Amino acid sequence: MSSSAAASCPVENLLLSVENLSLKEGSADTNNHHGLSTRNYLLHGNGGSLPRIRETRINGFSQYQTGFENSMLLPPPLFSESVWGSNSLSNGGSFQGSRLQPRARILVPNYNFLSGSALDVGTGRAGSGLGGVDNSMVQNQEELKKVRIFLGLLQGDSIVNYCSDQHGSRTIQGLLRLRNPEITREIYNKVLALSSRGIAVVLELMLDQHGWHVFGELIDALNYQQLKLITYEITKNLDAFVSLTLDTHGSNSIRKVIRLLRRSPLVTLVMNNLRAAFFTIMTNRIGSYAVSECFNQLSAEDNRLLYEAAIECCLDLAIDHEGSLALIRVINTIQGLQRYRLLDILSTYVAFLSQDPKGNYVVQKVISLNNPLFTQKICHHLRGYYGTISLQKGGSHIAEKCLDTEWKSWVIEDFLSNTNTLLQVAKDEFGNYVIQKALNVTKKSGSPLYQKLLLRLQPHLSILRSGYGRNVFNLITGGRSVKKV
């Protein structure tokens, strides 16, 4: 049906067609028994949805029991597909790419009868008849009545489905941008209701690729009391909160909440949850962005508990792939006494971290800060380990960085203390770069250690002529060959 034809249809005709259906959160009653199977999903800690469902057969049809206590069996829809609205209003597509997985099709109301009305306000599409339309249109009782009717058709799963569609999402966002208290309150009440899966609609919207934009527009339009209740709904269950944080769209939603609440005491509700699941969140790439949002948006005092959590588990974070990256972001922002405590722990356990594939990056970060106190401590605690770490990819970089400090003599003395270790490092894939660095920095500074290194290496040049040792050989001889001793 064209938009012009739809616009001319009386609202009563639309309501009459809806009255013939008995909708109950994703199911319908009729005599037609040829329908689609229903599938329900739960939020899961990995972000997204995870089946936790028990299948039952009733009258030959599959029914499913969710993992929620006291939940009811949901029968399959009994209408043919032609009766149900598409999951995607724009092109008849499915939920592919959405965090909400396919389930029973829900009747999606046709909003074309509101074309050119208040419903289109704020969508920003060219040629949609929005020119000159503002909030005054909603003050028109007839237009407001149409919006009420439209919103009345969105209940439970239907509002989730509707907001999961790109066009539907933009429509609801347009309504919210009107900042009309009655419309905002109506949408607000609907997203606080439970879907057929026993989950608040707001949580399902936050996980969806289009729904999270509706959520963001909604919280911008709420008053303090409404925002307080929404924040409580998001944070009251730690497992559900973590599921949101570890999901791409859920994390975007949480970060939006943090930015909005940065000057409000309500942000404490979010901070407490981030603190409670700190290690889980920080060792997840997507989840760690929510914590970083706090570091970027809030004061050092507001972040005090999060920084304390980072200090408590810094060693575990440092040896985790995502955790080490997140910890480096902590180092970039932490200040004051907490900064000193964190760097002191990392410097103390530097021998352990330097030999870890991920931890060595954290050590390199601390050295790059050029803080004499902690650089000296690192160089000191690595004495006796320079030969070992120079044989490792990450550790060799740390040894080279230590050679750029005023405590480079500790590194060279380690090599001079054992000729076999010196030769082993010089012939190694990674270690030869450390020995080249040692020769270069001592020669440039005129240190007597340069001559000591030469005296130890020259008798063994024939051994260094091949393999990775050739780099050291060429540096000492200038590329000249030597007779085999």
The whole-angstrom Rg is 32 Å
Q: N- to C-terminal separation?
A: 95 Å
Q: Judging from the principal axes of the Cα atoms, what is the shape?
A: elongated
* Average pLDDT taken over every residue: 77
Strand order of the biggest β-sheet = 1-2
How many strands appear in the DSSP assignment? 4
SS field, number of helical segments = 30
* Strand content range: under 5%
Main sheet properties: 2 strands, antiparallel
Would you tell me the structural class of the helices and strands?
Answer: mainly alpha
| Estimated helix fraction | 55-70%
Describe the protein's architecture and organization.
One of its GO terms (molecular function) is mRNA binding. This is PUM-HD domain-containing protein. One of its GO terms (cellular component) is cytoplasm. The structure is a single chain. The strands form two sheets. Strands 1-2 form a two-stranded antiparallel ribbon. The protein is built from 30 helices and four strands. Helix 19 packs parallel to helix 22. With 485 residues, the chain is mainly alpha-helical. 42% of the residues are buried.
Features:
485 residues, 30 helices, two-stranded antiparallel sheet, mainly alpha, disordered C terminus, single chain
Summarize the structure.
Helix content is 56%, strand content 3%. By secondary structure, the protein is mostly helical.
Q: Topology, pairings included?
A:
Layout: H1 3-8, H2 11-19, E1 42-43, E2 49-50, E3 54-58, E4 61-65, H3 136-139, H4 141-152, H5 157-163, H6 166-177, H7 181-192, H8 201-206, H9 211-221, H10 224-235, H11 238-245, H12 248-261, H13 267-276, H14 278-282, H15 285-297, H16 304-312, H17 314-318, H18 321-333, H19 336-348, H20 350-354, H21 359-368, H22 372-381, H23 386-389, H24 393-402, H25 408-416, H26 419-426, H27 431-445, H28 449-457, H29 461-464, H30 470-477
Antiparallel strand pairs: 1-2, 3-4
Helix pairs in contact: 6-9, 9-12, 12-15, 15-18, 16-19, 18-21, 19-22, 21-24, 24-27, 25-28, 26-27, 27-28
